[in-house]
Amino acid sequence: MNDLTIYFTTSLCAVYITLIAIFLFGLFRRSRRVNGQRLSVSVIVPARNEATNIDACLRALASQTYPADHLEIIVADDRSTDDTAARIDKWTRCLPSLSRVSVTQQNYACPKKNALWQGIKHARGDIIFTTDADCRPGPNWIASNLAYFAPDVGMVIGHAPLLQNEKALSGLLSLQALIVSTLAAGSAGIGFPLTCSGRNMAYRRKAFDEVNGFNNIGHIIGGDDVLLMRQFAQKSAWKIRFNADADAFVPSASHPDNLINRQVRYQSKTIHYGIPTLILALAVYIFHVVLATLPILFWTNAELFYMIGSCLGIKIIADAVFLLFGSIRFKSLKLLLWFPVLEILIIPYIVIICALGTFSPFKWK
């Protein structure tokens, strides 16, 4: 029995290390840039009760270097009960490219998908950009992402860092955002995109229509970004590129509030990724379940304890290398101070939160 367990665990460990190596290879693959494009752009910003954030977001969008005559900004006001709408309307007086769309219909189970769709319906641009009302895109965000829209590219995704603040676990959440971007860049680099952030993505309106927009994923809570990207990857010939240029970073503040519900919601989308991804995800999940048995093995089976403990040590080294290169790529080396905390929490997080994301109901917010 011990020999079988050792073979099984070492095989899972080998799969995990192989995935890390493949994603690291993809992380540093450079996408081809296209110069001199002048495509029409529509930026969609869903907003609900964002009175404290919307001014800074619109100020950032108003500062874009992309030509104003090729740009429109649409804020989808999702039934706000504060003065979000009034603040948006004030901006329309000095920002002619801005318009506000009031969300009055609920076409999809996911509120954010619904708000985005209401904005997209009114959009005239060839390229749809999406970000959140609490985000602050840099002035070259649009121009930088458009440079990656080669004729065969349907979507461009990018880094969406979470800024640290005084709140507890803020740094850990910032590290989580770095992990998402490193995985997104690495997987997109090998042509098998796994994740992205709706805070920083852009796609062709034509490609969006070809995959039937959100209609096939509208019944799923969440996934306005990742599941849409997976549709592009699975149901169309369009390529997906990751833009790692610093000009294209879209920062926002971390939100430790409703932490468990948010994390469960993030992980709930995995079951909709498709069979190949699910097989890999299951292998990684089982590997972490096996690692979680170490405290029990310490008292019951010394041989297995040392063997599985060795696999844990190898995993920690692989994680450290993965995040080291990710932090270098995204200029976030200071976040590695949170790495020891991450490694303490990652096994129970994966074992518990991922299971809850699959089987437990949750609220949108």
What does this structure look like?
The chain is of the alpha/beta class and about 375 residues long. It has 13 helices and 9 strands. The strands form 2 sheets. It has a 7-stranded mixed sheet, with helices on both faces. The protein has a two-stranded parallel sheet with strand order 6-9. The longest helix has 28 residues, at about 300-330. The model has no long low-confidence stretch (mean pLDDT about 90).
Topology record:
Blueprint: H1 2-27, E1 41-47, H2 54-62, E2 71-77, H3 84-92, E3 98-102, H4 111-121, E4 127-130, H5 141-146, E5 153-158, E6 162-163, H6 170-189, E7 201-204, H7 205-210, H8 226-235, E8 239-243, E9 252-253, H9 259-267, H10 275-291, H11 294-300, H12 302-329, H13 339-359
Parallel strand pairs: 1-2, 1-4, 2-3, 5-8, 6-9
Antiparallel strand pairs: 4-7, 5-7
Helix pairs in contact: 1-6, 1-10, 1-12, 6-12, 9-13, 10-13, 11-12
Q: Based on DSSP secondary structure assignment, what is the total number of beta strands?
A: 9
Q: Give the CA-based shape.
A: elongated
Beta-strand residue fraction? 5-15%
Tell me roughly what share of residues is in helical segments.
Answer: 40-55%
Compute the number of helices. Answer: 13
Distance between the termini: 46 Å
Uncertain ranges: none
Nearest-integer average pLDDT: 89
For the largest sheet, list the strands in their spatial order: 3-2-1-4-7-5-8
Tell me the series of helices and strands, N- to C-terminal: HEHEHEHEHEEHEHHEEHHHHH
Biggest sheet descriptor:
7 strands, mixed
Specify the structural class: alpha/beta
Radius of gyration: 21 Å
